[in-house]
Amino acid sequence: MTTVAPAHQPGTQAAMRTPGGPRPVELSWAPSSHARRLLTLALAGLVIAVTARRAEFAAVAAPALLLLATWRQDRPRSVLVSTTLTASRMVEGEYAAIRVTLSGAGRHTVDLRIEPASAIMPGEQDTAGVPFTAAHWGERAVGALEITLRDRWRLSEGRATIPLPRINCYPLPAHQSTRVVLSRLPSRLGEHAARVHGEGTEFAGVREFVPGDRQRRINWPATTRRGSLQLNTFAAERVQNVVVLADATADVGSPGSTTLDLVYRGAAATIRAYLASRDRVGFIQYGNQLSWIAPATGRRQFHRVMDAMLAQPGGWDARSAISRLPRAALPPGALIIVFSPLLDRRLVETLRDLRERGFTLLIIDVLNAVPEGGRDHAAALARRIWRMEQQAIRFSLRELGIPVVHWDGEQSLDEPLAPYTRRMMVSRR
Amino acid sequence: MRATSGRAPGDRAGAPADPGRPPDGAPAPRLTPRVRSSAAAGLLAAACIAWAAIPVSGGGTGTRPALVVAIGCAALTLARLAAGDWVPPAGIFENVILRTGRMLLEVLRAIPWAEGTVIAVLALEALHPSRPWHTGLLGVALLAFLFAVHLAESDARPAVLRPQLPVLAAGLGLLVLGCGAALLPAAGMSAASGWLRVFAVAAAIVAGALALPI
């Protein structure tokens, strides 16, 4: 059964990132390992002194015993702790920190340490808090905060562990500074110079002056040459609708740079690049379920899309049969940029359908892995057949007029897109 | 209309991270107190063992086993400090080597190797003929070793021991007092005479401790 639903609304999780005010935390006290070692030294010295009748060993025990004699019982049963994450969301490899406010510790020294959850790497405690980073994107549990109180003699330790909130770790966007722009843009004010004349700032040519034109646009050198009033014309500036389609049906390849990692990192880069040029960007996640976010502009849209990426797990389900994308997710004349390893036949059929519906598509192929198997002749033959099938899929898409470029995940996205970013991409109906 | 200012959304990350360079906001790499204290603990352990063992031939029966145990415990103490809080990455499909490594790490953390080092070094010293000033110096070194281990374990700077300095100084004074008392000639060679000397030294230490304004 296929579920088609719009992606969840943003802001619902961000509010849960910072827990409430200070709360009492019970401490469990025990002798420190330092105290146990001092006790061992004292007892060993005394035992040897008595059994071997060697008085100097009693002297060896004296400093340890004197240090142990400073043991005090005045220690807090509980402390008030409040924890705050410095960021409600982060990017892979970026550092965030947990700010801890602790009161009621008296003269005890406080040590804070993160017991990390999976893929979380804690840093060293500093004045700003306890830093940590996430090695991989996802909605992650940070782990637990271990609080250790030590008395000034460091003989007893009070420990408490409090769970930490979860954090959204976004995929690290790849590098992309150029953009593919369609030759035909919708008539909405934007930043891309269109082919039609308008009120933009990019010079388009000169034409004869007609009454009603603005005099400040008269091109005097051209007027002198031609003998009649000539007017500068400018290109209209239009916005572009871009829909990024992320194929989450497959996750193959080496850990850390699987096809799903590359899909999300590439999609994040493209979304960021187009939003930076004030374009309207939408997002479709194609996986077990289909979720989408309608095109919009701004930073908020970026976070909305990133949250949607993390909300839906990737995967493949033989029962799902998505072959047509909803009309609401695809504004007319939009450029559809597809990040996919092209391993799912249903997606290939969907792309063909989109092309037949007149959309302009650009596929970024992120497949960098080949099936592993034996080294015998049959396995090699199977791999060769598989490779030929993949080539055939890409060839058939190119035959339909859908450009397919390959991206290895390490180079900048500008490189594979260079043939399409140098000039406007012609949108064919 | 052109974009004139402002960073792109999510621009905090920028280009993919350079593996050789810590990301923005990461603490700069430096020699941590843990490393310094671990090195000090290693040197002090080696010094204690060497001091207690020399001369190896001059010790009684069991000197060599005690020496081996002391060296082993000291090495494992250092291994424990080096392991710190490191947790090996967990996987579903672990081979025998990884599982054995994980088990050994748990054993390394469970057994108090530093205490074993202290006991073995004291036993090594006790196997040699009586030499009070020598034992006194060994006591000072063992105390320093224990403090170094504690600093390495808790990743703390030596400054945290400042409140203990008066007590530590008084303790070292008692140690000198005890060793001095042990250097006094015995009244006889009998067992009772030996115990009497031990109790006399202990009484001197207790009296000194009670007189301390701590």
Task: Describe the structure in your own words.
With 429 residues, chain A is an alpha/beta fold. Chain A has helices at residues 33-52, 55-68, 220-226, 259-276, 299-311, 345-356, 377-399, 414-421, and strands spanning 23-26, 28-31, 78-85, 89-91, 95-103, 109-116, 120-122, 130-134, 138-141, 143-150, 156-163, 166-170, 189-208, 230-238, 241-247, 280-286, 290-296, 335-340, 360-365, 404-406. Chain A contains 8 helices and 20 strands. In chain A, the strands form 5 sheets. A 6-stranded mixed sheet of chain A has the order 17-16-15-18-19-20, sandwiched between helices. Chain B is mostly helical and 214 residues long. Chain B has helices at 33-53, 63-83, 96-110, 113-126, 132-154, 165-183, 191-211.
Task: Provide the descriptors you would attach to this structure in a database record.
heterodimer; A: 429 residues; alpha/beta; five-stranded antiparallel β-sheet; 20 strands; B: 214 residues; mainly alpha; globular; disordered N terminus
